[in-house]
Structure formats: C-alpha cells, structure tokens
Amino acid sequence: EVQLQASGGGLAQPGGSLRLSCAASGFPFSTTDMIWVRLVPGKGFELVAFINADGGSARYGDSVKGRFTISRDNAKNTLYLQMNGLTPEDTAVYFCSKGAVRGQGTLVTVSS
Predict the structure, then answer these.
(1) HSE, side-chain direction, 13 A CA sphere, residue 12
(2) CB 40 within 8 A of CB 91
(3) Kind of pairing between the strands at 18-25 and 44-51
C-alpha cells in the first residue's frame, strides 16, 4: 500500500521559512519521480515542485521559483520542501504526490 505522510507545516510569519517532509513507503521511492502540490483555498490544486528519481533534476511552479527548494533522501525514503520567503499567498495544504496518488497533507499558514 502506497503511503505518503507529509509533515512540518504550521504557522509562519511573512518572510519566514518552513521545511516540509514527506515519508514515503509501499513503493520503490528511489526510482520514482515525486512532486509537491498544494491546495489553495478557493483556487484548487497547484503544482509546487517536481524532482526526478535520483534528485538530479527539479522544476518549480512560477509562484515559488527562487524561494522553494525540493530535495530528497532516497536512503531515508523521504521527500523535502524547503520554503523560504513565505508570503500569505503560500497559505495552503501541501501534499506530496506520486503520480496521481496524494498522501495526507500538511497545513501551512502564513500570517502576521
């Protein structure tokens, strides 16, 4: 059974940082491309970042380029999202995904 458990969300101030983690199990993580998506209130799902299986290639949504960094540790079956320069527009529930399969998300709220 595929399991994806995101964690690390919380309340951050504008300009602050958070690091999200996603623990993966039930599939060959080290050979699987992974993505972070977010569910923005009133706007639907938005692609945040993509990373290929060996971590050598990453792409980002326009709204997070230059502020967020996706990474992975294949030895630990864990995906990460380092979020810097947070703005209120980053407020969302963040999910890690394997193709169309999303795990349990983590809420990020950016507010002063």
Answers:
(1) 23
(2) yes
(3) unpaired
Q: Which residues contact 3 (CB under 8 A, 6 or more apart)?
A: 23, 24, 25, 26, 103
Backbone angles phi and psi of 89, in degrees to 5: -70, -10
> Per-residue pLDDT for the chain (112 aa), expressed as one digit of tens each?
999 999 999 999 999 999 999 999 999 999 999 999 999 988 999 999 999 999 999 999 999 999 999 999 999 999 999 999 999 999 999 999 998 899 899 999 999 9
Backbone φ and ψ for 78, nearest 5 degrees, come out as: -130, 135
Nearest to residue 77, comparing CAs of 31, 9, 18? 31
Q: What do you get for the CA distance between the two ends of the chain, in Å? A: 40
